[in-house]
Amino acid sequence: MKFKIIVVVAARPNFMKAAPIFVELKRFKNIEPVLIHTGQHYDAGLSKVFFHDLSLPRPDAHLGVGSGTHGEQTGKTMVTFEGILSKHKPHLVIVVGDVNSTLACALATVKVRCANKDYYPLLAHVEAGLRSFDWHMPEEYNRRLTDAVSDFLFTTEPSGARNLEREGIDRKRIFFVGNVMIDSLMRFKKRAEHSDILQRLKLEKKKYALLTMHRPSNVDDKRALRGLLHVLRRISRLLDVVYPIHPRTEKMLKQYGLSADFLRIVPPLGYLDFLQLMMNARCVLTDSGGIQEETTVLKIPCLTLRNNTERPVTVSEGTNTIVGKDPEKIFSAVENILEGKIRKGKCPKFWDGKAARRICRTIDAHLRNP
């Protein structure tokens, strides 16, 4: 008997997490993987190039959800994904991360069970149990609700299991497998080293800082955005600050009439180009989640422009420092890095490039012996 498994991707961070899982599933003769792209990130710079860089095949279906409010994205995805479930009748659906499509596809999957007495698709959440404990973040709702309805909860770090158990999740549903994002990093690191992005941007290794910034709390609030731009201007006097600009931030800069011409702004980059920039940066400033993990493995100092992190192991064991939005704290942290005062950190357990293998073996064993 062949088991059909749907793997859902939606936004840029999903691609790096889903790619190693999809590749690993294809090694199992009794499993038929199906790749579904919801289209939450629809810009070519944020989507198509990642499929190429990560050697992902063309999706079996592209739902074309596009942009919109949180409610619109979630609702559109649920409606269209319900049709995918009816067509493919998968035994299992795998969702990754914490974007709106993650929650939408999870809810659509479990609601199908209610309408079909003889059909019970299982649900797996990769990157389960991460918690920022910040209810202003839409991702926190997506994470918690997805975990609550999932049958398999695959965690990346010890805090994940502790959080899930506190929320009443049965231990039998929790599996500590490691970090699939690191699977992609280790697989493509050599290829990324051949990227010519440094030459194209005329950058020298360790002579620049890399910036990513897109969260609503940082870019939708004019006062917060102005404050961050102020400190980034100060940092740019010490070293170049390279910013592959996010469409959301670009939109808000124009809306507020704010200038960021002191930054080395470049268009959104593919995975390999961005990885090359990250590997050779003096430090990384970010409000992203996954970049905190990648910099930890690469041993690159990371300054997180948030007051919290759902990935505490990157702080306790890795190279990540939470600096929030305080301009003086941010600037002081950069000065420390330039003076050589950095945390070397270590690679957390199971961040070894084999997380996808553990996930797929666990799934295969449970499908064979339910």
Which descriptors would you attach to this protein?
370 residues, six-stranded parallel beta sheet, 16 helices, Rossmann fold, seven-stranded parallel beta sheet, globular, alpha/beta
Mind explaining what this structure looks like?
There is one protein chain. The protein has helices at 12-25, 48-53, 70-88, 100-115, 138-149, 158-166, 180-192, 197-201, 216-219, 222-236, 247-256, 271-279, 290-298, 313-316, 327-338, 355-368, and strands at residues 3-9, 31-37, 61-62, 92-96, 122-128, 152-155, 174-176, 208-212, 240-244, 264-266, 283-286, 302-304, 320-322. The protein has 16 helices and 13 strands. The model has no long low-confidence stretch (mean pLDDT 94). α1 (12-25) crosses α7 and α3 packs across α4 (100-115). It is globular. The strands form 2 sheets. A 7-stranded parallel beta sheet has the order 3-2-1-4-5-6-7, sandwiched between helices. A 6-stranded parallel beta sheet has the order 10-9-8-11-12-13, sandwiched between helices. α13 links the parallel β11 (283-286) and β12.
